[in-house]
Amino acid sequence: MHTLAAKPRSRPRGDDENVLAMNALHHRAFDANLFTLDDERRLQVNPQFDPGHPFLRETIVARAEEAVSLPPEVTIAPEYLAERNQSLAWV
Question: CA separation (Å) from 3 to 26, 39, 47, 57, 80?
Fold first, then answer.
């Protein structure tokens, strides 16, 4: 699972509204600030992101601005996305 906050280790563990499960490839791209979700859960992609991996190109870059659907039991607190996105100059 991945913590959304800009400083993930500063958040206490166990806050279920600050966790998003990702595969390892997307996790690394997220941690490198190459993409994020906006407050409407649309995929926002760093304009400088030019992935060499075709899977990242297909699943992130080609889907920029698309809404990401999450399982109904997943809740992301808006303040965590806002905090993360405020730290990204390209959002």
Answer: 13, 16, 23, 23, 9
In 3D space, the residue among 50, 46, 56 whose CA is nearest the CA of residue 24 turns out to be 56
CA 58 to each of CA 13, 24, 50, 68, 71: distance values in angstroms, whole numbers, following the listed order:
32, 16, 11, 14, 21
pLDDT tens digits, one per residue of 13-35: 567 777 788 899 999 999 999 99
3-state secondary structure of 31: helix
In 4-62, where does DSSP find H-type helix? 24-31, 54-59
